[in-house]
Amino acid sequence: MKIAQIAPLYEAVPPKLYGGTERVVAHLTDALVDLGHEVTLFAAGGSQTSAAQTIGRDQPLRLDPAPLKSDLASHLNMLYEVRQRADEFDLLHFHIDLLHFPFFEKIAGRTLTTLHGRLDLKDLPGTYLHWKQFPLVSISRHQRTPLPFANWQGTIHHGLSPVAYTFKKDAGKYLAFLGRISPEKRPDRAIAIAIAAGIPLKIAAKVDNADREYFERDIRPLLSHPLIEFIGEIGDSEKSEFLGNAHALLFPIDWPEPFGLVMIEAMACGTPVIAWRCGSVSEVIDEGVTGFVVDSEAEAIDATSRVMDLDRQAIRDVYEVRFSADAMARHYVHLYQQLLGEDDPQLPLRKIA
C-alpha cells in the first residue's frame, strides 16, 4: 500500500525535544515501513524516519529563530504539495487537525484524519458537520465525547517502538514529572504530592512562552524545596534513564487529556503511573497493573507506597501488547483496508517490489 503521512510542521518527526504528535507520527511511519508498506512522510526539515520524505518546511516552526513566521502559510504550502501528488498514494493520512478539509473534499474517501488534540472547543462542531465526509480516528474514546456525531471510523491508541525505551527492572527512589509546565498539567499538584509523601521529585519539562508567567509566579517559588529538582526540557535519548530510574511517574493533570503519551513512555521503561482521573487516563492505565488512577492528592500520596507492589516486567509486557508501534500500525492498516474496500482481517500485507 502506498501511504502518505502528513505531519504538523511545529516539530521535526520525531521531535528533538518535546512534542507528542510528531513523535507518534514517527513511530507509526517506521512501523508501517517495517510491515512492508511504501510510505512518504510530509514533514518539517530535520525529520528522520525510514520513509521517503518530502520537506514541508525547511525547519520546524518551534525551533526556527526567525522572529516573524506564519504557521498557517507553511502548512498551506505543504498541503499544496500533497494535493499535487495525491494521485501517487492509495491513502493520505493527515495529522494536522482539520486544516486540509477544504482542499481534499473530492477525495475525502481516500483520506484518514487522526485528531490528536482536545475537541471541546466552541467552533469545532460546525466544522465537523460541514465536512462530515472525512473519516476520522480518535486517540481515545473519551476524546470524542464533545463530537459524538462526527464521522468516527475507530479509536486507535498511540504506540511507540519498544527499542526506543530501555526496561528497568528495579524501582528508583524519586518520583518523575515529564512534559510541559502549564496550569492544566498541574506541576504544583505533583510537587505537593511528593512533599507530602516525603519522596524526591524530578521535573523534566519545557516552559513555553505562553506559560512563562505561570511558571515564574506559581511554580518557581516551589522549586526551592529540598525534595524538588527542576531539570528542564529533555530529549528522547534521556527519557529511558529519567523515567526508568523513577519510583513512579506522576501524571496529575487537570484537563480532558486526549491520550497522554508520557504514560506509555513510562510503561515502556517498566515504571508505574499515578494519574488523575481525567480524559483518557482510565483507558490507558490498567488499574493495579500498570499504575493507579486517583481522584485526590490523598489517594495519590497513598499510591506512592502501593506502586512498590506492582510488577515492573508486567508493566512492560502490557505496554508491548497494547501500546507498541507495531500494534498501533496494524490497527491503522486494518482501517486503511476498510476505507479502501479491502475489509478482510486476513488480507496479506501488500509487499513493495
UniProtKB/TrEMBL annotation:
Keyword check for Transferase: yes
The Glycosyltransferase subfamily 4-like N-terminal domain, residue ranges: 18-126
Organism superkingdom: Bacteria
GO terms, molecular function: transferase activity
CDD domains, per database record: GT4_AviGT4-like
InterPro entries from the UniProt entry: Glyco_trans_1, Glyco_trans_4-like_N
A Pfam family it matches: Glycos_transf_1
Keyword Transferase: yes
Keywords noted in UniProt: Transferase
Chain ranges of the Glycosyl transferase family domain: 169-301
PANTHER family given in the database record: BLL5217 PROTEIN, GLYCOSYLTRANSFERASE
Record's protein name: Glycosyl transferase
